[in-house]
Amino acid sequence: MLAAGRCIASDGDAWDVTRVIPVAALTGEGAGVAAAMSAEQNCTPEALDYKAVQAQLQHQRKFPLHFEDVGLNS
Question: Mean pLDDT by 10-residue block, N- to C-terminus, for the chain (74 residues)?
């Protein structure tokens, strides 16, 4: 099962960041890509290499994965 949106778990400062609508929408895109890759590779989502999922998201469009990607310092 993949979770997306405001129902995902996070801790510390990430909790504040993940509760806003744009970030919640991006989690949906990430979950969709992971689901598609799982189907293509005939595996469960946890069996995917997270770096491969990140690479696919970056390939599709400039997907922000890190604070620096949106002009913030970590």
Answer: 82 79 86 96 96 93 82 76
